Fold Alpha-galactosidase NEW3 domain-containing protein.
Amino acid sequence: MRFSAVYYLTLVALAILLLPSLTPVSYAKADKPALMLSSPFTGVTIEQGQTVSTNIKLTNNLNATSLNVEIQVEKPEGWEVELTYRGYRVFRIFLEPEDEETITVKITIPENAAPGVNIVTFRAQDIERGVASNEVAIQFNVVEKPRENPIELEVSFPSLSGSADDTLEYRFDLRNNLDREVTVGLKALNTPEGWVVRFKPSAFERRVISSITLEPKSRETGLVMEVKPVSTAKPGSYKITLVAETEGFTAQTEVTATITGRADYSLSTPNQLLSFEMGAGEEKQITIVVSNDGSEDLTGVSLSVSPPSGWSASLEHEEIALLRAGDMAS
């Protein structure tokens, strides 16, 4: 009997020791890490100084354990990485069992970031149990930001019109975007033959210049390109290119000069004599020359004569249908 009692107590004790093994254990989903990070892209091309936003999804694959997850970021020096969740900046996320949350990641590239491939790495780890996630590495192919044009040229009114006798004034501004003083040369290209182009500091100065000095990061306004057409310029539109250049940098723009026709004519005789002698009752034939001294054709030119009282005079032709610029008719 004594042997049986000892045997019974031993069995009870063994049963009590085995009870903890019946407590539920948390398991991850098959073939998945307990804590998983994922991103919609793993590589992006971006310019210096640009900002890009993406999402990082955190998934707790454990079926019975909550996780208090701290997010860790490795980034190049000078880069800015901001994590937000529902509008708040965060560095930890709480995940219920078999739950997932998405955070927004905003990454700002420095203006002076070196062109090439850079990597930003994300990891997460539960601060209580040490459960660690996989690693998400996003590659950033940084390309050089397009350079701001060191010299900018802007014409207020690039299209002007006038007759061949007029002087056209194109007002323009120059901007120096460099961090140093520069001397900018001015010139005109494609100027029609015989035309004269001059540059002045302003419309109120007679001084003619061929260059101008600009302070760092400054703007010079009210400069003038003065265009004088040749007197025989025919009506039409003419293109002239205004050029500003310094230290190998060039800015240019095209202006248009529209020459309108100029009406001008004169009357004379073949020998330029406008007086003569004749006797009473005598009849004399005089040749009159009509010259088109303008720059546009004349049409429907009417001629008339007004003799002294008692005299009589008549014209062989009282109208010239067409008299082209520079031509004469008699």
In short: The chain is about 5% helix and 45% strand. The longest strand covers residues 116-126. The chain has three domains: 35-143, 151-259, 263-330.
